[in-house]
Fold:
Amino acid sequence: MTASPETPAPSEASAVPGAEAARALHSPVIAWFRENARDLPWRRPEAGPWGVMVSEFMLQQTPVARVLPVYEQWLARWPRPADLAAEAPGEAVRAWGRLGYPRRALRLHGAAVAITERHGGDVPREHDRLLSLPGIGEYTAAAVASFAYGQRHAVLDTNVRRVFARTATGVEYPPNATTAAERRLARALLPEDEETAAGWAAASMELGALVCTAKNPDCVRCPVAGLCAWRLAGKPAHAGPPRRGQTYAGTDRQVRGRLLAVLREAVGPVPKAALDAVWDEPVQRARALDGLVADGLVEPLGADGDGALATAYRLPLG
Structure:
């Protein structure tokens, strides 16, 4: 991938700090984390690797406050991968509630099935085996290996990328998509020993979530403010076009959410007429419903061979 036009990719020289500069960041950030880290259930020892994996799926593009109640209900119902794997995938979609991006529920269910069938019900330790699970990409594999097993991996989420962009490269925001330069930077900043590397991964992520935030960075509270390239440069403004937040009202995402809400509440199939009442605009409603079917989140009933003319819909059974 290449950097987006709104944020130029940092040069090789500026992107990769020396070992001494990298080490100067580690101790203060990790010390700050020990004093300020939130007490989150997936960080507790009893969460185990499965709890860490569930949290990583749920936290993608979703705030902690929305995840917490769903996470706790999920682990109470499905404390092991095998417990989830024994259920129909539609039950995962139902339990996902209003977290958004419900395909994550199907992917997590698929990962639970694979863990049960291939790994004896235990979340694998090895990064390559994690990466081979359905729905697991580079970020999630690195996060689970690091947070659950204390391994040395570069964990690059949005918060970490923003911290690195500011402290090391002197720009306010990272590119929209992760670049090769960012990966080189993350590897250069990664401590050599596993324990410190795992602590650094969690600490830099928390720093971005609580202090080095997107809109209102609290530099007074930052443990590495004196080393931050962006702050030392006078906090130059973002050079690209305005960064716009995602809209929701009136989008297909909103329609899909309303349709799924009806299906989640139902104990059986839902007649198409009941779904037609969810949204007035028929073309958009049909497009959203077709998208749910195509994504495997909804099953049509009473349809012909190509899925047309369905008379009812339900969450997937298998």
